């Protein structure tokens, strides 16, 4: 084989390798670009903005099922609110604050409002959660109110009036993903003292998250209010900023869940809440 022929073969080989490298490189670049589906990204933006449609939710579930399990379902059917309560007598320690992200036991933002009048005390909250109601405004959101599990904690009048007692109430708002898994639960905890006719004192009050996925970013608490006591009934309201961020698509939603609990002098309570 002549030197000239060997040179032509070597040159051709280099050209093939260069072309192959270009093709592989172009494919890798295309794959990276394809990692973010522009239509899914647009659907996510509409979910975050509250302008979504059922077709947006279907698109996300069909094209990105793993992502769909991390996306908070904006439909009112995904909003539930539940509660539990425990009574204990004076001198008993009772449950302690849950320490965790966001310093839930911090009371520096605690605001005490005027005590409820007897007329205001007569009303009850509806034990429901809504998707989007802001307690500081009177604007009604488009999302429908969702009936939730009722958890009343009424005591008999004779038992309640027998002595002063304490009760803690933990109310939590849950938000599900498009595939039904829990994205997070937002809790508000209150402890109150009562004597059968009056709420006589507030104890510990705080909020916290549980069952949260990695996509959930806990922000500042932006509302922490309670009405004055003693009174026939009293309310506690807390609201928190929560941001949802997913891989590839970034942060797509800012939520402001809140929970309001109304406690009464006979030890009963009602509540309402929002996913923000």
UniProtKB/TrEMBL annotation:
Keywords: Signal. The keyword Signal applies. Residues 91-110, 118-148 are annotated as: Disordered. It comes from the Bacteria. The keyword Signal applies. Residues 1-32 form the signal peptide. This is Tat pathway signal sequence domain protein. It comes from Streptomyces prunicolor.
């Amino acid at each position: 084989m002549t030197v000239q022929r060997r040179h032509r073969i070597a040159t051709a080989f280099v050209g093939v390798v260069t072309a192959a490298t270009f093709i592989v490189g172009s494919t890798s670049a295309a794959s990276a670009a394809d990692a973010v589906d522009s239509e899914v990204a647009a659907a996510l933006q509409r979910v975050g903005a509250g302008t979504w449609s059922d077709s947006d939710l279907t698109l996300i579930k069909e094209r990105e099922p793993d992502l769909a399990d991390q996306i908070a379902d904006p439909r009112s059917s995904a909003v539930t609110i539940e509660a539990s309560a425990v009574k204990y007598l004076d001198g008993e320690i009772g449950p302690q604050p849950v320490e965790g992200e966001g310093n839930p036991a911090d009371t520096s933002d605690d605001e005490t409002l005027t005590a409820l009048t007897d007329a205001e005390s007569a009303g009850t909250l509806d034990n429901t959660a809504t998707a989007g109601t802001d307690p500081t405004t009177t604007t009604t959101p488009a999302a429908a109110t969702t009936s939730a599990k009722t958890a009343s904690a009424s005591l008999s009048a004779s038992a309640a009036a027998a002595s002063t007692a304490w009760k803690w109430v933990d109310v939590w708002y849950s938000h599900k993903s498009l595939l039904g898994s829990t994205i997070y639960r937002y809790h508000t905890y209150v402890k109150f003292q009562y004597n059968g006719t009056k709420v006589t004192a507030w104890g510990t009050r705080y909020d916290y998250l549980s069952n949260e996925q990695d996509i959930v970013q806990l922000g500042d608490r932006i509302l922490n209010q309670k009405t004055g006591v003693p009174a026939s009934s009293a309310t506690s309201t807390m609201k928190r900023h929560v941001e949802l961020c997913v891989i590839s698509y970034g942060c797509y939603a800012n939520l402001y869940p809140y929970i309001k609990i109304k406690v009464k002098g006979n030890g009963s309570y009602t509540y309402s809440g929002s996913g923000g």
